[in-house]
């Protein structure tokens, strides 16, 4: 297994991630009103920026989560899905760094939302 090296690797990972996340009965309803065709390129460029410093992502990711009625459990599900999908496809320094960043962002978002720290 190799590490992520291109934006196509991020896209493949995100497609795998959303198939699994949307098959989770607790997480799926959060995405009921989301246009996934529009959402996907935004999250790909967000993670591309973190992985390679090259994404075109401009936005306020935290603010987009404010109206979503998230819970600490949802952050745990999100993070575990993120890690298991990444581990299915890639291994190496970039993959490890993405998991670390995801975990750290999960704690920061949960804290800013006034939630309990996720059990991750
Ligand atoms: C824990 C770390 C998380 C990270 C790093 C993250 C990252 C992102 C990013 C980059 C966006 C795109 C924002 C934009 O369009 O500018 C986004 C949107 C979104 N996220 Fe997250 N997210 C996290 C947690 C979660 C969780 C736990 C859920 C629910 C299970 C969730 C559901 C959503 C939804 C529904 C949107 C679309 C919001 C909209 O377009 O109005 N996210 N997220």
Report on the structure:
- The chain is mainly alpha-helical and 120 residues long.
- The protein has a single domain, classed as Orthogonal Bundle (Globin-like), CATH 1.10.490.10.
- It is built from 5 helices and no strands.
- Bound molecules: protoporphyrin IX containing FE.
- The site of protoporphyrin IX containing FE has 21 residues, from helix 2, helix 3, helix 4 and helix 5.
Explain the layout of strands and helices.
Elements: H1 7-22, H2 36-52, H3 61-65, H4 72-89, H5 93-112
This protein binds protoporphyrin IX containing FE.
Protoporphyrin IX containing FE is lined by residues 27, 30-31, 34, 39, 42-43, 46, 59, 61, 64-65, 68, 70, 74-75, 78, 102, 105-106, 109.
Name the features.
mainly alpha, 0% strand, globular, binds protoporphyrin IX containing FE, 120 residues, Globin-like
Strand content: under 5%
CATH homologous superfamily name? Globins
The CATH topology label is Globin-like
Question: What's the SSE pattern?
Answer: HHHHH
Average pLDDT taken over every residue: 97
| Number of domain modules | 1
Number of strands: 0
Assembly level: single chain
| Gap between N and C termini | 25 Å
Rg? 14 Å
* Uncertain residue segments: none
Ligands: protoporphyrin IX containing FE
The helix content, as a percent range, equals 55-70%
Any guess at the CATH architecture? Answer: Orthogonal Bundle
**What is the CATH domain class?**
Mainly Alpha
Largest beta-sheet details? none
User: What shape does the CA trace take?
Assistant: globular
> Which structural category do the helix and sheet elements fall into?
mainly alpha
């Amino acid at each position: 297994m190799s590490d992520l090296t291109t934006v196509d690797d991020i896209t493949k990972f995100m497609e795998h991630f959303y198939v699994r996340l949307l098959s989770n009965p607790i997480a799926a309803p959060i995405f009921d009103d989301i246009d996934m065709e529009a959402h996907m390129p935004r999250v790909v460029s967000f993670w591309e920026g973190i992985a390679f410093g090259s994404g075109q992502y401009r936005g306020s990711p935290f603010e987009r989560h404010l109206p979503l009625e998230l819970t600490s459990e949802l952050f745990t599900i999100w993070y575990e899905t993120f890690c298991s999908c990444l581990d299915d496809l890639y291994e190496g320094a970039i993959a490890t760094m993405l998991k670390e960043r995801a975990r750290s962002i999960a704690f920061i978002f949960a804290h800013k939302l006034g939630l309990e720290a996720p059990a991750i």
